[in-house]
Design brief:
Elements lengths: L3 H6 L1 E2 L5 E5 L9 E8 L8 E2 L7 E5 L2 E5 L15 E7 L3 H6 L10 E3 H4 L4 H9 L4 H16 L7 H12 L7 H4 L3 H12 L3 H19 L5 H8 L4 H12 L3 H7 L8
Parallel strand pairs: 1-4
Antiparallel strand pairs: 2-3, 3-7, 5-6, 5-7, 6-8
Helix pairs in contact: 4-5, 6-9, 9-10
């Protein structure tokens, strides 16, 4: 686990600068669950923690297109002050198909899209560099995604079913009969679609339920927050939250701005 200094200084990515998510247009919804942009201010650089969420993202950052693979632990990217990152979050199962690469090969990595071999990448990068400002780049980024996905096949249905079960807190072992898979087959599919096995995906989505509860129910006592999120108890929550974020539950509650402080 990170040192206390890092815990005290790190900011969840959504709390650093100006982070915005928005729904993709209908033409992209088969392949991307969200589009987003993140603008850092022009002040001193902060230590930004990008925490695991079970997804893979396509980024426009520092003049190039890149793939941010799925994470097992918090990443601390170096982002220049006064810069804007534009991103698209792949829908469950879409990334491995779109990239022709199993996500197990991309865990914890940021890889230039050109290195993966997607056609037209250099052309798209040149067009994005010609944009006059971040707003124009966001608009063009969306249009380029529509061009790139026009002939892509539908993402495999089983990935969406697996992700939805993990997201809801239902044990993935209950999917064996529904999907006609053995435990070994399910594990293989999880590694292909998400980068890691079913148990890790379940833990990461439980951590994300904790973050969502912090945003909506910040005044809830920690012990109850742990149970609502699906942890065995508060100690279990503290261990898991620390592993995935390097932060304590209390620090996250404070950062997300919902904890009631004395007046």
């Amino acid at each position: 686990m990170a040192s206390k200094t890092r815990q005290d200084m790190a900011l969840l990515a959504a709390r650093a600068g100006r982070y915005r998510e928005y729904a993709p247009p209908p033409a992209l919804r088969r392949h991307f669950s969200r589009l987003w942009s993140h603008r850092l201010g022009d002040g001193p650089p902060a230590t930004v923690a990008v925490v695991p969420d079970g997804y893979c993202d396509l980024l426009w950052i520092d003049g190039r297109l890149a793939i941010a693979g799925p994470d097992r632990t918090a990443a601390f990217p170096l982002i220049r002050p006064d810069s804007t990152v534009i991103g698209a979050r792949f829908a469950p199962g879409a990334a491995a198909s779109w990239l022709k690469t199993p996500l197990s090969a991309l865990v914890g990595l940021s890889v230039p899209l050109a290195d993966i071999g997607r056609k037209h990448t250099r052309e798209y990068e040149a067009r994005l560099r010609d944009c006059s400002d971040p707003a124009a780049a966001r608009t063009l980024f969306g249009r380029l995604l529509e061009e790139a996905t026009r002939d892509e096949e539908e993402p495999p249905r089983d990935a969406a079913v697996i992700f939805a079960a993990a997201d809801s807190g239902h044990p993935l072992s209950g999917l064996f009969g529904r999907l006609g898979m053995s435990e070994r087959q399910l594990r293989r599919r999880c590694h292909h679609h998400f980068g890691y096995g079913a148990k890790t995906l379940e833990r990461i989505r439980r951590f994300q339920r904790f973050l969502d509860l912090c945003r909506r129910q910040g005044a809830m006592p920690l012990a109850r927050l742990a149970l609502e999120a699906g942890f065995a108890d508060q100690a279990h929550m503290t261990r898991e939250v620390g592993e995935f974020s390097t932060l304590t539950p209390t620090v996250i509650l404070d950062q997300l701005g919902m904890r009631k402080r004395p007046g």
